[in-house]
Amino acid sequence: MMKFFGRGKDSAVDVSPQSFGHSASASASGPSVNGPARPVRLLYCDEKGKFRMDPEAVAALQLVKEPIGVVSVCGRARQGKSFILNQLLGRSSGFQVAPTHRPCTKGLWLWSAPLKRTALDGTEYNLLLLDSEGIDAYDQTGTYSTQIFSLAVLLSSMFIYNQMGGIDEAALDRLSLVTQMTKHIRVKAGGRTTSASELAQFSPIFVWLLRDFYLDLVEDNRKITPRDYLELALRPVQGSGKDIASKNEIRDSIRALFPDRECFTLVRPLNNEKDLQRLDQILLDKLRPEFRAGLDALTKFVFERTRPKQVGGTVMTGPVLIGITQSYLDALNNGAVPTISSSWQSVEEAECRRAYDSAAEIYMSSFNRTKPPEEVALREAHEEAIQRAMAEYNASAVGVGAMRKKYEELLQKFFRKAFEDFKRNAFMEADMRCSNAIESMGKRLRAACHASDASIDNVVKVLDALLSEYDASCHGPGKYIFSMI
């Protein structure tokens, strides 16, 4: 098991359920496929402008066969995204992608070892953490950032937007990519533009995290919650004109795209500016109590509310995440708009097909071919092989709808045909074996009858011996064949 490190330097941290005041548990899975756990690039844009998935991330995800939930943290660079991700990992450092001046760091980065989680409802799953490095929600590069932002939203169970300060017009402008998502994503195939409310059914829980927050949350002389503060900020602006319409479009898009939303505030963790530059080296108990309380509340919310990502009847696993991401990237690289329903359907079919192939292979290898060619014995071997094969299929196939049913029906047809083919061949071999035995018995019986010392007693003895020999060597259909001769 990967050992957790403390939030403070050289100190341990309690990540037990009691430390967060709820019944969910957190632990890290084993190390990644290539060494200890660390951030690996999930997807990026190459020098030719094509989106790619990193082979190392793909290899790590292929090992995660159980359901997964995904928490993404997005926001401007150098505003503490890595700090939040490390707190969720129970570490003081580690989720540091690279210095921002280095090339090829832009994209989505994945912590290679998922956290083993048990949700409040008892569901066990793996929690994956994503960091959108170099992707600002307000980015003049336009399309590229919108596409990465959209992918992070679509892949996530919970999407945390990390920002310094309060929610004002400038902050809302930085989330303007939300209004562009509908131009880059379709729910269903076709030429019609998808609305934000249509995309909402696939959207994650949205958390607006406000860092170094200093405002008093008061409205009409009464104290309000951060969630109230968010809702007030998203209210339509009164007035008319193009500028007002643009402001309200952003607010409308955020409300429509993220119906399940929350807001958390964190005060400045330290007052000393120099200490802030080395926050990952400061012991947690040296940070301001108000900051620690807010951090605990955020961590508790993330662990309690995150669930395995699911679209329709398909629960995301590591291989499914690979498939759906690659499907989106293929569409983008071909100049098309990714379509959610089509992409998920193609992934469902690919995974169900793989499950079908694996189950068919297990059936063939599990069928006990040493059984005698008798209907009852062969039927028992057939049923045992089916049970093993179906266990594999049910463990590997995804979805609960038509695609899964389709391949299950194909699998049942395969079982029936394979069984009938084997039974027919087994009976033909038995028939041939018994026919040869009968022919040999006839020759030996005739020889006994024509022997110089032939007698009734000798012939009967030979016949009894032949019958015993036949009964020992020919079974099932052979007995039936012999009785008819």
Automatic annotation (TrEMBL):
Source species, domain of life: Eukaryota
Keyword Metal-binding on entry: no
Assigned keywords, A-Z: GTP-binding, Hydrolase, Nucleotide-binding
Gene3D superfamilies to which the protein is assigned, alphabetical: Guanylate-binding protein, C-terminal domain, P-loop containing nucleotide triphosphate hydrolases
InterPro entries referenced in this protein's UniProt entry, alphabetically: G_GB1_RHD3_dom, Guanylate-bd/ATL_C, Guanylate-bd_C_sf, Guanylate-bd_N, P-loop_NTPase
All copies of domain GB1/RHD3-type G, residue ranges: 65-307
Alphabetized PANTHER family for the sequence: GUANYLATE BINDING PROTEIN (PTHR10751)
Family that this chain belongs to: Belongs to the TRAFAC class dynamin-like GTPase superfamily. GB1/RHD3 GTPase family.
UniProt-recorded name of the protein: GB1/RHD3-type G domain-containing protein
Phylogenetic lineage: Eukaryota, Viridiplantae, Streptophyta, Embryophyta, Tracheophyta
